[in-house]
Every structure is written in structure tokens, then in C-alpha cells.
Amino acid sequence: MAYVPLADQDDAHALHDPQSFVTKYIWSQDHKVIAIQYGGVAIFVGLIALGLSILMRLQLGFPDTVSWINPAFYYQAVTMHGMIMVIYLLTALFLGGFGNYLIPLMCGTRDMVFPFLNMLSFWFYLVSVIILLASFFVPGGPTGAGWTLYAPQSISHGTPGSEGGILLMLISLAVFIIAFTMGGLNYVTTILQARTRGLTLMRLPLSIWGIFTATVLGLFAFPALLVSAIMMGFDLVLGTSFFMPAMMELGAQNDHEGGSPILFQHLFWFFGHPEVYIVALPAFGLVSDVISTHARKNIFGYRMMVWAIIAIGGLSFMVWAHHMYVSGMNPYFGFFFATTTLVIAIPTALKVYNWVLTLWQGNIRLNTPMLFAIGFIFTFVHGGLTGLFLGNVVIDVPLADTYFVVAHFHMVMGVSPVLVLFAALYHWYPKVTGRMFNETIGKVHFWCTFLGTYAIYLPMHYLGFLGVPRRYYEMGNTDFIPETAQVLNANITLAAIFVATAQILFFINIFWSLKHGEKAGGNPWGATTLEWQTPDTPPKHGNWGDELPAVYRWAYDYSVPGMDKDFVPQNEPGEEYEKNAHHKGA
Amino acid sequence: MSHSSTVDASVSGSTAPAADGVTGFINDWSADKQTYHVPWGKAMMWIFLVSDTFIFSCFLVGYMTVRISTADPWPLATEVFALSFFGSDPIPLILIAIMTFVLITSSGTMALAVNYGYRKDKKKTVILMCATAALGATFVGMQMYEWSKLIGYGVRPWGNPWGADQFGSVFYMITGFHGLHVTGGVIYLLVVARKVWLGHYEKKGYEIVEITGLYWHFVDLVWVFIFAFFYLL
């Protein structure tokens, strides 16, 4: 049955601009407002998680100087820091924030296909955040089971937060997954079904490819987390034994029998590993666009970049058990999962080469977004290479429970995506607000963050080699760790406090520039993608004025030979294109 | 659409004649504007159902794992799910056979409703949708009866008289989750049926009936797997 696509529908009459303050800014169905709401909440919880990490570092660097950081609080801080950063900050900001803002603009539509569902998505997300934060205020505090919530520890009596915190965590995750599903269905359907005229999939900017693939991963991976949250909740509330074995608990036999703790790990990591790429793929996409724009060169190997994103997305469902080499699962699995893990390095390395080759002989502008983007290449290569070590079973077994792993995943999925977030926030700031940020403060912010994170995480690799175990509140009597490790620990803490403090610069910059920044104009970077070609900046409700844009070329026509200016927007008709259309007598 | 005339016609896939097989697939995915020639709601429902498939798959894989890993014997389905009528010998799986029959029948009425929807036969569409909803509600009612029987036998999520504790846990969890899907589907059907009756889709078209049907058939299909894994194995 033929169905008229959006781009061919007569849509001018369909726009109803919201009138009141409430429908415009609070119960808004406009994807741009929802994006900012998502972004604001995500950054807010991210700051809480940042604060928790500083408290953890204070304990590790200067043991027992802060009297109220006790072991229970330390574990709660570890748990909440990890969970917030991975899910409530990175997933929400990349997909809820940038996904919402960029998908309709880059695809040339007026909004998401189901704006109401999109609005619900944000409000469910907000509820999940409130439930999560509420766990700080229940008796016993938030859960201290570690961010992976491994059973049986997570629901055993004696684990911090087993009174109520763990239940709130599980409920919050379930609500988050509902929110993500509503948003994610919108993102995928919008990208597949509502593109503008001339915009084929292979003309999409890589940002959209990254966000699209990550959303698909999310729709297939979050179900595993939902199911494990439901089963764990039943173990906790109803006394079932899905994950809980019979064991001694606080000196008494518990009420469970025959559960499988390793089942939880499998379910968790079947979600958890794709989750790494749910965070990484949008970062890959966004950084590709930032690099191409500021290098004034087309992205090197666009098609390969797209296929690499898809290949990484597919492979990410086949590597989950490399998180479980030391879990006691059948060792024969290790070989399979080590192989798939190393195979995933191929498309990933391909992307890194292509970013570098995009920079090669480019007309590089070293402004703030570009600095963050180049910084990302460094940290990502760094974290990726240590990932190759850890992907091998024999190397992982001795290193798995040490700071080497902490250093690895913070480099590869902590620092790297955050650097891309900053690159993207600076890059699209002029479009979102209509004003330029302060370049000098931005650059200072970059150097403090970039060098500071190296000061934090580089020494952690050495701590890992020394065998310093992770997730420990304090070291106690460990003969094999030299005294000097504590010097490193103290320095890491100082660097962490420095980096955290430096983020104030970012907030000063974006808030000050809201009022006092230079007017940006519609396309300050000379970028080709559609969002920079809107009639108004910031784009108004409906994005495109009376008529939707038409797309005539791919997203990367920078420095095309024989052109006057060094970029050609996607919606600019080219001579050969017009000739072609004329020739066909259209 | 004054602009569309200037766009390279070769990329306007949606206006090109539909092709079959691999060529059609490639045409669809290399087209501009839209990938599938279906309304948004239908595309979104398909994607949601794939996601929901992962949820049920995880549940069933979890069920298989705990059933394999538990040391206690698994209760015999033929004895647990047997029912006697008027003092007869217990007939194994009779209730579940009726329930499955009811649910499969409801898929038939749903398919008819979709067909009459596209023929714009409002009255028959509404009647058939209500019949589907009624069959769905019957299914849920019989499930409640089955649950109450099992609760009467002493089957609890944390234990039962016959064997592995996990029997009750997975049974209530998975049939409960499926029952919630059916209940949601009944409500969804009634809401859409009401809107059909009020003529909301006269102009927009009756795709929504088919979209509701997709969800309904999915719930039925899931039941087939649950039926096989719980009652037959």
C-alpha cells in the first residue's frame, strides 16, 4: 500500500506554534526544547557523580582524612558514580540530548515523528533520575553493590543500601528503560521514515549514523537489563531464587536456594557491553562531523565509516563475556569471546585511521571544539590499546581486578566520550543559543581537562601493574604493594580535584556567553550539514519556515576543487545536479 | 512541491516503481525520504516488537538457565496443569489447551478486523475488534483461574510442594508478564475500536487497525513459545 512520505506531504498548515510559556518550555513537544531539558538534567546528575568521584579520590589519596567517608559510603559512591555516569549522563546526553536536537535538524524534518511520545520520554527520564536520587534519602542510603549490581552481593543483607537503595535503583533503571524505549523508537523511526527530499541514508552525516546505530543497540540491549532488574527485584521482594544461591548471610542461612549468580552476569553484560557502544557510537559520529568541519576536508572514507559503525554495532552483541573471564564461567568460552573482542578492534581502528587521514593535510582550525575532538583521538587510541590487552584471557586474569581496568575503561568510555561531549557542546552551542562562546576560556578549559585526565589515568595503569586492587576502600597490610604507590594515589587525587574544578570554566563560559557572547549568525563554522542552514538561529518551532529543505549532495563537500568558498551546504543545488534533473525533463 | 522537480530523480526512490526481491530491498534502502513504504506508526510498532522480542527472549533464556542449573527436580507439567471435570480423572493440559485455542482464535478475528478496516467497513471492524478484545479478556480470565488453582495447591514464587523453587518463580513471572501484555492489548484494542466507531480514521486511513493487529499477533506468537516451553517440555 503506497504511503505518502513526509517530504511529499503538504505540511504548511500542520504547524501549531505553542503559545503559552508552559507549552513552549515545560510541557514542550518541540524536539529542541526536549533536547535541552534532557541535556540539562543529564549534566546536573553528571555533576553529582563527579562530586562522588572526588570524595572517593579523597579517601584513596588521603586515607581517613575525611572522617565521614566510611567503607559503606565509599561503596555507595562507587556504585552511584558508575551508574550515573554510564546511564544517566552519557546515554541520556548523547541520545536524549544530541539525538533529539540533531536528528530532526540533520534529517530536514520539522520534529520527531511522534512529538508527544518524545515529551513523555523526557518526563519518564526525569522521574527515573528523581527515583535514583531519592535513594540517597532512604534509610541505609543508596545501594553499594558496585555499578554492575552483581548478585548475590547486591541483595544480601549487610551490603550498604540493601534496605531500600537497591530496590530504588532497580525501579529507576526500569523507568529509565521505558523512557529510552519511547525516545529510541522515535529516533529510529524518524531517521528511517521522515528524511527530507534527496536525503538518502548514504548522504546522512555520520552523527546521525552513530546515533541511529546506538539507538538500535539500545532497543535490543536494554531489554536484558530490564529483565535482570525484574528478576533481581523479585529475588529481593518476593524471595525468589533467580540469582540467589543458598549461602550463609551475616552468620545465618539465607532463604534462597539454587539461583544462578552467573546468569545475572550474563544478562547484565549482554546489556552492558552494547551499552559501551551505545555511548561510543554517537561519540564516533559527532566527532567525525566536528573533525571534518574544522579540518575543512571531507571525512576520509565515508562509506567505510558507516559500515564500521554498523559492524561495531553488530559485533558488540557478541563480546559480552569478556567482562566475565574471572567469573567462573566455562573457560572454553574465553577463547570465543577473546576472538570476537579482538575482531571488533578492526572496524574501530579503521575509524581512528580515517579520523587521522581526515586531518592529514587539512586546513585545520585549532579552535575549542577541534581541540577536544583531537584530544579524543589521543585518549581513545590510548584506552583502545589497553583494551586489546584486557581482551586476551591470559592478560586479563591477573589484571582484571586491578586499577589497570579502571584506567582502561575510564580512558576509553569515560574520558573519550566526555571529550566528544565537550567538542559537540562547543560545536553546536552557536546553533542552540545563537551566540559564540568565549574561545580563550574554552581553550584553557580544554588544556586543563585534557592534560589533567592524563595526570589522573596514566599513573593508574602503573598502579594496576603493581597489583593494586580496585574497589577497595583502603589497602590494609599488603606487602606486595610498595609504599610509593600511595604517592601516586595522592597525586592522582590532586589531579582529579584540579580537573573537576576546571569544569567551572565550562559553566562560566556557556552561561556568560548566553548574554554576552558575540552573535553567531546562522553558520559560523561554514558547515555543510542541514542544521546550519536553518532560516533562523536558534531554529524556531518547525525548524524550516515554509518549505522543507531539499538535499543535493552528501554531508562533506568541504574544499571542493574549483569552488569559490570552501564548503557547499547539502541543500545547495549543484550544476551537474541541475543539469541531470533538466536532462530527465523533470 | 515545487522543489521536488529539481531533485535528482534517481534518488527519489519512493516515486520509483516498486521492485521485488533483492532489487526492491536495495531500492528501498538507497531511497531518500523513507525506507519502508509504510506509515510511521507501523514502522515504529515493528521496531518496538523486535525490542519486545528481546525482552521475552531474555525471560525465556533465564528460565532455561535456572531450570538447568537447579539441583531439585522440576515439577511434571502433565500433573501440575491437569484439571478434572465433575469428578472425572484429571485431564492433563486441558485448561491450557482451551486457553491457547481462545488466543489463537482471537488472532483470526483480529485478521478479519484488519481486512474489514481496509474495506472501510466501520461496523464489522468494530465488532471484530471487540470480539478480539473479548477473547483476549477470556484468556486473561482463564489465566487468573489457573493462577488461583496453583495458588490453592501451594505454588508460590518462592517455593512449591513438588520440587524446584524456581518453578513458581518463572511461571508466575513469565505468564504474568505475558498476561500484562494481553491485558494491555485488550485496552489498546478497545481504545482503537472506540476511535474507529467515532470515525477518527475515515480520513487518515485504517492503518491503525493493522498496527494494533501487529501487536496482537505478536502477543499470540509469544504465547506459542511460552506454551511450548512451560507446558510441553
Automatic annotation (TrEMBL), chain A:
Report how it sits in the membrane.
Multi-pass membrane protein
Q: Which GO terms describe its molecular function?
A: cytochrome-c oxidase activity; heme binding
Could you tell me the keywords of this UniProt record?
Answer: Membrane, Transmembrane, Transmembrane helix
One Pfam family, short name:
COX1
- Transmembrane region(s): 33-58, 78-103, 115-138, 166-188, 208-234, 267-288, 300-320, 332-350, 371-391, 403-426, 446-468, 488-512
Return the PROSITE patterns for the record.
Answer: COX1 (PS50855), COX1_CUB (PS00077)
Task: Report the locations given in the UniProt record.
Answer: Membrane
Q: Can you quote a single GO CC term?
A: membrane
GO BP terms, alphabetized? aerobic respiration; electron transport coupled proton transport; respiratory electron transport chain
The keyword Zinc-finger is annotated on this UniProt entry: no
Q: What InterPro entries is this protein classified in?
A: Cyt_c_oxase-like_su1_dom (IPR023616), Cyt_c_oxase-like_su1_sf (IPR036927), Cyt_C_Oxase_1 (IPR000883), Cyt_c_Oxase_su1_BS (IPR023615)
| Positions of the UniProt region annotated as Disordered | 565-586
Q: Where is the Cytochrome oxidase subunit I profile domain?
A: 21-552
The record's section on Gene3D superfamilies has: Cytochrome c oxidase-like, subunit I domain
- Which protein are we looking at? Cytochrome oxidase subunit I profile domain-containing protein
Organism name = marine sediment metagenome
Classification of source organism: unclassified sequences, metagenomes, ecological metagenomes
UniProtKB/TrEMBL annotation, chain B:
Q: How does it sit in the membrane?
A: Multi-pass membrane protein
What name has this protein been given in UniProt? Heme-copper oxidase subunit III family profile domain-containing protein
- InterPro entries (UniProt xref): Cyt_c/ubiquinol_Oxase_su3, Cyt_c_oxidase-like_su3, Cyt_c_oxidase_su3-like_sf, Cyt_c_oxidase_su3_a-hlx
List where in the cell it is found: Cell membrane
| UniProt keyword annotations, A-Z | Cell membrane, Membrane, Transmembrane, Transmembrane helix
Q: Which family does it belong to?
A: Belongs to the cytochrome c oxidase subunit 3 family.
Q: Does the keyword Transmembrane helix apply?
A: yes
Output the Gene Ontology terms for molecular function.
cytochrome-c oxidase activity
Q: Which GO terms describe its cellular component?
A: plasma membrane
> Any transmembrane segments, and where?
43-66, 91-114, 126-145, 170-193, 214-232
Q: Biological process GO annotation list?
A: aerobic electron transport chain
What region holds the Heme-copper oxidase subunit III family profile domain?
45-233
